């Protein structure tokens, strides 16, 4: 698109869609968007950019007709804007297609993929490259606190041949008209593969289907590229086994190219040593908590090193890396009570979040407040694993399943069953309907020194604002 156009995004508050909106605006296009329910941090980012955000969905939002409509992957037939654009023959495309054609085709794509950790790892990689003076472009599914944004179009992209572009590679489907994974549109030069587990139970029928998607992504990497893959997972092993490019493993295994040793966690963050091919490469410390984040950082360091970034630049960058919004983000400290927001979408992610909080706040009473909202957590496929993860907390509070009526009863998670199993394991647990009921119930029970982990991949009824407000009223 060589000339400025009016581009409208349906489902603009999705993390990737809001990031794309910002990139398109930087390229000189007039951008508008619509969504059903806007919530931070992406709604805040859009408003700060002056991008009109229309609510709710309506045919009138496409009048007069834009030059192009980008249809988010959460949009299905029946949406009034989608129905209108099909009737009126307004040109439309997907987020992944336009990212490739407008941005990645002229760059060197560095794709970070995996069931877990891809947002944080891609943020770390972009920050490392930036600190090293490489000024990468990036598009990430979360607001990176070091940059204050989720996207960037580099000045280097105007002048240099095939500049670096860091992008989070999402395995979720592309659009209502393209049910393949978004990341297959990104054609990586090099990539990170953090993990492979069954997820997105609404579009993948089995773990085998998930692995097939990741195998196809690996198969797109050219011989001159690199796959940096986590060790210790037979699923990852299988997905990289037939790569045509070089594969470097990272993790705790003694034979991995990039090995973590001497991991230490405390209230001030995490320290460890990175060994490369058996030799000490870097002594790292960073403010983030959690073994999983040390693994994420090591993956980012390995891919950065393959593009000429020194160990010194990596350690400097990681020591100053803050975090990503909604990843172990401290939302408030009220009356000595710490409220943490984390983007929980899977039992494994919940487990690692609670483990990290245990390390950061040793001795504190840890509350886990969960809204089953992701398409995986709303289903009963991981009920046993969910109970095991939540049992790491001292007290668990579950909300009702988000939009429960859209999931068949036989497939739907039963929060009452989760609560019952937690009680059987000796973990106090409550089932409360929504954010208001939870706020009113737990606020009087909280004490100075407690840590409350709010786990949801959505707005959770405004609990992030309601709970601190209620605690303030009780002071």
Shape: globular
Largest sheet: 10 strands, mixed
> Please, what is the average pLDDT?
93
- CATH third-tier fold name of the largest domain: UDP-N-acetylmuramoyl-L-alanine:D-glutamate ligase
Number of domains: 3
Structural class of the helix and strand makeup? Answer: alpha/beta
In order across it, which strands form the biggest sheet? 8-7-9-6-12-13-14-15-16-17
Proper CATH architecture of the largest domain:
3-Layer(aba) Sandwich
Count of runs of 4 or more consecutive helical residues: 15
Q: Can you walk me through this structure?
A:
There is one protein chain. The protein is α/β, with parallel strands linked by helices. The chain folds into 3 domains: 6-94, NAD(P)-binding Rossmann-like Domain (Rossmann fold); 103-319, Mur-like, catalytic domain (UDP-N-acetylmuramoyl-L-alanine:D-glutamate ligase); 329-474, Mur ligase, C-terminal domain (Protein-Tyrosine Phosphatase, Chain A), CATH 3.90.190. It is built from 15 helices and 23 strands. Strands 8-7-9-6-12-13-14-15-16-17 form a 10-stranded mixed β-sheet, sandwiched between helices. A hairpin with a 2-residue loop joins β16 (269-276) and β17 (279-286). It starts with 5 loop residues before the first strand and ends with a helix.
Relevant terms:
UDP-N-acetylmuramoyl-L-alanine:D-glutamate ligase, single chain, alpha/beta, Protein-Tyrosine Phosphatase, Chain A, 6-stranded mixed β-sheet, 475 residues, Rossmann fold, 3 domains, 23 strands, 15 helices, globular, 10-stranded mixed β-sheet
